[in-house]
Write a structure and sequence with these properties.
44% of the residues lie in helices and 18% in strands. The longest helix is centred in the middle third of the chain and has 36 residues. The protein starts with 8 loop residues before the first helix and ends with a helix.
């Protein structure tokens, strides 16, 4: 039986879900992932899961829904995938990694302690080194007195000096212009088209609300309109082509790469 730290990625997901009292049916309804895939995830059955690029997106959606760190669970999945490919039992590899990490930490502490001890012994044996390490501070130079010649003290009262009054200079009204431009951008109607070359989990927010969340299949095209623009999150950035106001954007990333809360249109396009 594995200990808590040696659970595989699917067992960790299942444990977190049960602790939060969330059913597979709730996750399937929210993420649009089939019960069959969710069961394969929890059983760590790599033979029943799709390609890693899709499986990473499923794990992130699952983890987001139950409120755990998605990247940690994706890393656990990739570790199990590498272990299965190498043919080494996951528990043996993880125990071996912990063993070497512990030995490395102890070795570092020993080396640091010996180095500090040697430095201390060198300073005690040769006290002149300590004196050499203390820089001598130069004595401050005395200020020489200033002799005033042909100067007499006047008994007349000192004339009052009135401060010069300057007329206030009005600053350019840049703040109002900036606010006016921002208001125009917020009211502008933005059109967005998402065309998927590969399956990708997608979340789209506009005006502070989520207008779409779910899996867009390969070959599907989604179109949206909103005032002020969007914020886009993708589970497979390299598999989605994005067009804003009729202008196609460059690729948002590599296949399987995750992006979050990308503003559309980009700030440069607004300027």
């Amino acid at each position: 039986m594995r200990s808590g730290t040696d659970l595989r990625f699917g067992e960790e997901l299942r444990r977190e879900r049960i602790v939060r009292e969330i059913t597979l049916e709730e996750i399937s309804a929210a993420t649009k992932i089939s019960i069959r895939i969710l069961t394969a995830l929890e059983e760590s059955d790599l033979s029943r899961l799709p390609a890693p690029a899709f499986t990473r997106g499923f794990i992130r959606s699952y983890a987001h829904h139950i409120g755990v760190d998605p990247e940690e669970k994706v890393c656990a999945y990739l570790a199990d995938l590498a272990e299965q490919s190498a043919g080494t039992p996951p528990v043996a590899i993880r125990a071996r990694a912990k063993f070497w990490r512990g030995r490395g930490a102890i070795a570092s502490l020993i080396v640091g302690g010996v180095t500090a001890l040697l430095l201390l012994m060198g300073l005690i044996a040769k006290p002149e080194r300590r004196a050499a390490l203390r820089p001598e501070r130069p004595a401050p130079a005395r200020a020489s007195g200033v002799a005033l010649k042909n100067v007499t003290v006047s008994n007349e009262p000192t004339p009052a000096v009135r401060p010069l009054e300057l007329a206030p200079v009005s600053a350019p009204d840049t703040a109002s212009n900036t606010a006016r431009d921002a208001a125009k951008d917020a009211d502008a109607l933005v059109s967005l088209q998402l065309e998927c070359d590969q399956d990708s989990w997608t979340k789209l927010d506009a005006s502070g609300q989520t207008v779409f969340v779910g899996l867009i299949r390969r070959g599907e095209v989604k179109r949206f309109e909103a005032r002020g623009g969007f914020r886009l999150s993708l589970g497979n950035a390299g598999g989605v082509r994005v067009t804003v106001d009729g202008r196609a954007l460059e690729s948002l990333g590599r296949a399987g790469e995750v992006i979050r809360n990308l503003p559309l249109p980009p700030p440069a396009a607004r300027g």
